[in-house]
Design goal:
By secondary structure, the protein is mainly alpha-helical. The chain has four helices and three strands, in the order βααββαα. The chain has helices at 6-18, 22-38, 64-76, 79-84; strands at residues 3-5, 49-51, 57-58. The protein has a three-stranded antiparallel sheet with strand order 1-2-3. α1 (6-18) runs antiparallel to α2 (22-38). InterPro entries: 6hp_glycosidase-like_sf. This is Glycogen debranching enzyme C-terminal domain-containing protein.
Length: 86
């Protein structure tokens, strides 16, 4: 079974954005949001990692570094600023 850390997913989004591929970065951020939202028992648990094929949330829940990196990626894409202006 292959998986990926949701913490690393935030870095991936930020990297793609720095390459100038904003639309791809937003698409990847959306996928990361879906994984972070799924959780093991409840929504928005920010689990440790996700299954590489199914995207199912796995590992320990409530990982602060996963949540922080997701917020950081949102900030880099200026997603947070747009949402607060709505």
């Amino acid at each position: 079974m292959v998986g990926f850390g949701t913490f690393v997913g935030g870095f991936w989004v930020k990297f793609i954005n720095k390459l100038g591929l904003r639309d791809v970065a937003i698409s990847e951020l959306y996928k990361l949001a879906l994984i972070n939202k799924e959780g093991l028992a409840e929504e928005w648990e920010f689990t440790e990692w996700a299954h590489g094929t199914t995207g199912k949330a796995m590992g320990k829940a409530y990982q602060a570094w996963s949540a922080a990196q997701y917020i950081s990626a949102c900030n880099d894409l200026h997603i947070i600023n747009k949402l607060t202006k709505i």
